[in-house]
């Protein structure tokens, strides 16, 4: 993935399934409204299927693909939904077979030129490719200040280079396709801490 030889999420699928943020249902609804048909959606780099499960509510079939068997092991089963171990650069799909290809918080790890070639191969006419990132959390007050210090100064220097694409909201990510302007979407979460309620998360525009 990318130019790296390490896949960072090959282990830890159980914790990933427990703590990974869920996407808003409106995201899947919006994507389903764009496609030429709802026969098949494919979620690449799906992890435990946080987005894949939402897509299955709108498509006849949804497939989640991830190179990690441990991630797939901890994905929840659901009607009209299946999972397979496969990398983004070698999609186990027939030519021109899918109307929606998504990658949620994953595309920055891909070898993008190879992935895009696969997208062109498997995409049906007028298919949609959506690369989604929820960016960096924004918290209020003292907690926000402490999180910013931790994220940018303490853990930031240790992130792999590809992670910088998330920090920019994918604004610098190469995307050789016609772009659409999506509606503003948000992930809302509340944390209770010392009597305070914090509203978390906002999805930046995605492509």
Q: Give the helix tally.
A: 7
Elements, N to C (H/E): HHEHEHEEHEHHEE
Task: Give the fraction of residues assigned to helices.
Answer: 25-40%
Strand content: 15-25%
Low-confidence stretches: 1-5, 193-207
pLDDT averaged residue by residue: 84
What kind of sheet is the major sheet? 5 strands, parallel
Number of strands: 7
Structural class: alpha/beta
Q: What oligomerization state is this entry in?
A: single chain
User: Order of strands in the sheet with the most strands?
Assistant: 3-2-1-4-5
- Report the C-alpha radius of gyration, rounded: 17 Å
User: Whole-Å distance between the termini?
Assistant: 20 Å
Overall morphology = globular
Describe what you observe in this structure.
With 207 residues, this protein is of the alpha/beta class. It is built from seven helices and seven strands, in the order H-H-E-H-E-H-E-E-H-E-H-H-E-E. The chain has a five-stranded parallel β-sheet, with helices on both faces. It has a two-stranded antiparallel ribbon with strand order 6-7. The radius of gyration is 17 Å and the shape is globular. The model is unreliable at 1-5 and 193-207 (pLDDT under 50).
Quickly describe the structure.
By secondary structure, the chain is of the alpha/beta class. The chain has helices spanning 13-19, 25-34, 52-56, 69-73, 112-122, 141-155, 164-167, and strands spanning 40-44, 61-66, 81-85, 98-104, 123-132, 189-193, 196-200.
Features:
28% helix; disordered C terminus; five-stranded parallel beta sheet; 7 helices; alpha/beta; 207 residues; disordered N terminus
